[in-house]
Amino acid sequence: MSTEFKPIVRIAGKDLDGARKVAYALTGIKGINIRLADVIVKKAEISPDKRLGFLSEAEIKRIEDVIMHIADHVPAWLLNRRKDLETGKDLHLISSDLDLKIKEDIEREKAMKSWRGYRHAYGLKVRGQRTRTTGRKGRTVGVKKRRK
User: Fold this and answer.
1) Predicted model pTM
2) How many angstroms separate the CA atoms of 23 and 66, rounded?
3) Which of 6, 47, 66, 127 has the fewest CB atoms within 10 Å, measured from its CB?
4) Is the per-residue pLDDT at 1 higher than 70?
């Protein structure tokens, strides 16, 4: 075990807090939640009680390898992009790749002129939420008192 503590550790292109436990620190990467982080720690054979700053370079490398090839280590239902439209494969995207794919999906919906695309294009709520009173933009008026 390395006794040298690193306050900031870079994993998958993201600076993470070295003072946090490994699984919780990995949730700082967009696209990795706590459940997936636990699986990554187990597959990399690292103690879940360790702090990220105390990991050796070899352990960090193992974590990065598991993250980059996560589809080989977890079941398909745990991945965030199943049956990708272009490739038809189950993928797990992280950080900027995830942001880019989400934007592409929204643009595709707009181009198809689907209901969701229409809602996105006009800045309205997409998932069936109420819009009568919530989600308004601009200043609030409140209740005006009637003049007598």
Assistant:
1) 0.74
2) 13
3) 127
4) no
